[in-house]
Prior knowledge:
Chain A is mainly alpha-helical. Helix content of chain A is 71%, strand content 0%. Chain A has seven helices and no strands. Chain A has helices at residues 11-17, 21-41, 46-79, 95-115, 122-126, 133-165, 170-176. Chain A is flat. By secondary structure, chain B is an alpha+beta fold. Chain B folds into two domains: 17-251, no CATH class; 283-426, Alpha-Beta Complex (Sulfite Oxidase, Chain A, domain 2). Chain B contains eleven helices and ten strands. In chain B, the strands form two sheets. Chain B has a five-stranded mixed sheet. In chain B, strands 3, 4, 7, 8 and 9 form a five-stranded antiparallel sheet that branches. In chain B, helix 1 packs antiparallel against helix 2, helix 1 packs antiparallel against helix 6 (170-202) and helix 5 packs across helix 6 (170-202). The longest helix of chain B has 33 residues, at 170-202. In chain B, 48% of the residues are buried. Classes of the chains: A mainly alpha, B alpha+beta. At the A-B interface, helix 2, helix 3, helix 4, helix 5 and helix 6 of A face helix 3, helix 5, helix 6 and helix 7 of B.
Amino acid sequence: MKPPTAGAAPPGFRHRYGASPLHLLLLLASFALACYAGLRLLEGDTLGVAVWFVGAALLHDLVLLPLYAVTDLAVQKLLGPRAGQGTRVPRAGVNHVRVPAFVSGVLLLVYWPLVLGQVGHYTISTGLPADVFLGRWLLITACLFAASGAVLAVRQWNAGRTARDHPSARASAARDDHPKE
Amino acid sequence: MNPVNPMDAKHSGPAAGPPRGPSRPEFWRSPLRGPWLTAVFGIVLLFGITVVFVTGLLSYAAYEPDLAAVNDQTPGKGWLGFYLFSWPTSPYWLYRVTQGVHVTLGVVLVPVLLAKLWSVIPKLFAWPPVRSAAQAAERISLLLLVGGAGFEFATGILNTQLHYIFPGSFYTLHFYGAWVFIGAFAVHVALRLGRAVRALRAGPRQPDPDSEEAAGLVSPRPAAPTISRRGALGMVGLGSLALLAVTAGQSVGGWFRRTALLAPHGQEPGSGPNGFQINKTAASVGIRPSDIGPAWRLTVRGGGRQIDLTHAQLLALPQHEALLPIACVEGWSTADQHWSGVRLADLAALVGLGTHPPQVLVQSVQRGGSFSSVVLSAGQVRDARSLLAVRVNGALLSPDHGHPARVIVPGAPGVHNTKWVTRLTFGEPV
Lengths: 181, 430
């Protein structure tokens, strides 16, 4: 779909507003609906709901993203080439940490109340034991890293074999995998 | 800083440009960010969130809020209930499927939502923050979009884990929050779908960072890649797959329940005829042994008449059977259980309302709290599978499953299958 064109609108409208009248109408309609529902949403604990809503908008962008981006950079530094090494060859090895950490992380992000034992009335409500979740999450995490390690080992073994069989392929094999330093 | 014409900001030198930090395009160095990647996540969310929204609306309708005040958690809904309809009893697995999809798909979309937010992060810090009235309005709309998405996902996911830390009643927050969100979602789709489709058609090749098609997402100073774009998509997909694997079993049931390793209802509460999932145990809602002991009576009212039945008298009435699941708003459900008890229509006949049984107000001995009473529609009462059950899978109901008697209605949300029933009032409230 092309951005809505100004159509019959006076040419000045687009200049002053910055988009077509259709853009404005769409937004106004959605704002009206948001106000209609929002007034009802904010009945009761107005401040609490507002904090949750704005907090939900900012949680990823201002809290989670800086946290995981900095962690990711730190892991890259740790696993990356030593400073001063000539070629800045990217290390696929980092993904063998990144992928299991990401999967384990999203599992925790969704299920942290049960994993961290935050739901005091879980057992009395459901008749189910509450103390299994932390252990399960830890074992899943262990399996994820172990599986990733197994894949890395197989890759390195394959790369090593390729390098022995075809010495000319050594350079490309080294690019694929984390070299022994 | 020199005042710059906003229109020229893009082309002006660094001295006149944004302050140091995330507002500078070169601050963001991932070589993956670009219109194609964002479009892939966006299209997945377009379909996924649409399904989650529609199944959410269906769940709201399944509670039959228009039928009676006791059913209505959101009496101020006004026009937001415009689409409400009488919830059918066939197919009997309807709510089990719609709500299982609602919750499971919502959980599975979490990594995609995070990835989408990651892919557009440079836009949050775009400089200047406000370029035109149109852009300012759009940024407010994006606050509603992202805040609404986070609010809905957070309240929903917390509610399935019984972690009621949100500021108010789940039904109110999740329902009105959905409507705040969906307007912004619709606008976002209307304004961005064309760009997304063009980006998908153009393929994964990165456009020039300054080009219009780059949409401010492509880094002008990309770092060396550490993962391919296909690899990043795979990682996000793996996150979704992992969530599906540890969640879906609580809705599929049977053998698959044991695969729901982190889901709230992934374990079996016991074995035997009553060994299936419990929403709220008798102890958790304050049911005392005396409430459901020999002194318990079932009162049936309607048409100006009233009769009281003991447990033995209820068991002596003609018993009928139905194979029906329990399906909770939290997304989990049980396989079909073999219920037996007295048809609701037969109980209406006891007070002379047998030919065209009306709706019924069902009341539990449960003291207060949400859903201790509910009104079932005439359509639900008239279904031959709608029972006041006294037995399940060949045994008397256990206290946790509603002994001495509970309602079971095909296709209804779990909480409408009231447990520990003590009074049935047929007809319109007086």
